[in-house]
Amino acid sequence: MENGPLKAVIVGGGHRSLTYAELAEIRKDRLQIVGVADPDENRRNMIAARFSIPPERCFYDALELSRAPKFADAVINGTMDHIHVETTIPLLEAGYDVLLEKPFAVNEEEARRLADTAKRTGRKVMVCFVLRYADFYRRIKDILLSGAIGDVIDIHTAEYVSYHHMSTSYVRGKWANSDECHSTMLLAKCCHDIDIITWLMGSDRPRLVSSFGSNIQYRSCNAPEESGTYCVVDCPLVDTCVYSAKRIYLDHPDRWTVYVWDKLENMENLTLEDKRKLLETSPYGRCIYKSRNNIVDHQTVNLLFESGATGTHSMIGGAPTGTRRISVTGTKGMLCGDMEEGKITLSVINPDPGKEKDDTVIDLTSGDSHGGGDLALVEDFVAYCKGEETSVSCTSIEGSLLSHLVVFLADKSMENGGGPIEVNA
Fold first, then answer.
1. In 12-53, which ranges are E strands?
2. What gap in Å lies between CA 414 and CA 211, rounded to an integer?
3. pLDDT tens across 168-213, in order?
4. 341 backbone dihedrals φ, ψ, rounded to 5°
5. Claim to verify: residue 309 and residue 374 sit in the same structural domain
6. 16 is in which domain, residue-wise?
7. Concatenated DSSP letters for 44-80?
8. Are 196 and 230 within one domain?
9. Alpha carbons 374 and 286: distance in angstroms, whole number
10. Is residue 260 in some structural domain?
11. Are strands 6-11 and 97-100 parallel, antiparallel or unpaired?
């Protein structure tokens, strides 16, 4: 690879791809965006204008790009979950390295096929598990590597998904129905967390996995008697319901812009009335209890590791505020942390007379919704492609396969009553 910035093509010009592409505007010496592929002409043109991409390097989709003469080093693939594999394989065959949004596959067969293709073609695939790059989890990894709490006995993580995030991304949004998006709630939302567990546990690999979960809240039987079908059209509870589309989206019109108002992104002089009109027919405007969702609103995953250590992850949807929490207990101490608060408490056993433990509180700040990890991940991808030294967080497809397999098995266990299943990685 020549000296100078890594040359990359955006495939699927959504929010995540553009977030990663920001490095090209901040560190022009490290990354340059030289092409785009997206079936949406308006979005394609917008990205082309933003990064000064000529027309001959604008493509309809990944397949069209793969058939053109190779003109870049890598691809940033931010397409939807269920087409990650079908869009990435032709690009690997064409000689591109790929930064691929998580989850990189939606079932075990796809996951193994993509990993095998990367190995056969000799191309590099890095998966966007950005939480590994968040300062919060990097500090925890460093603590565990230092041996400060000894050998890990138990690890527990929990993700609390806020009620408005649950509404927007899942019950009403792109990942509402696994038959349509081909991702389960655990895969779409918590493959991050399962990856964090397997990464923090290092060489101690999970041996057995089981899981339980269900949907308690977001069901038609919970709809108030007088509720309508569309919040701003026929519902008398539009001003009082916790999940009113008016309250969540019109009263906070900038909170979920890239999701809720994507069909209006090319309108000039957009007004609140334009947004209200869209909610009359949009899935985001439909009664939360009468939506097309089939995903769980809570799920717990149980793990038994080869050493005998145990682990759990709990996803709880509909919380007042969203955060991730973690506790890790070892033979010499324990640590607890809350990502939203940006605080980790390290407690180490102290055998001195009159003492029980020593506590250290680590305060951190977050740079973005992924704890400052987005651009750090892209920096690592550039280094990975250039053959430079990468960080301990590096999310190669080889290192990301295990956590995907755990998610697939957890969902299988949940569907079959929660019985344990052996992990065959």
1. 31-37
2. 5
3. 999 999 999 999 989 999 999 999 999 999 999 999 999 999 999 9
4. -75, -20
5. yes
6. 6-127
7. HHHHHHHHT--GGGEESSHHHHHHSPP--SEEEE---
8. no
9. 32
10. yes
11. unpaired
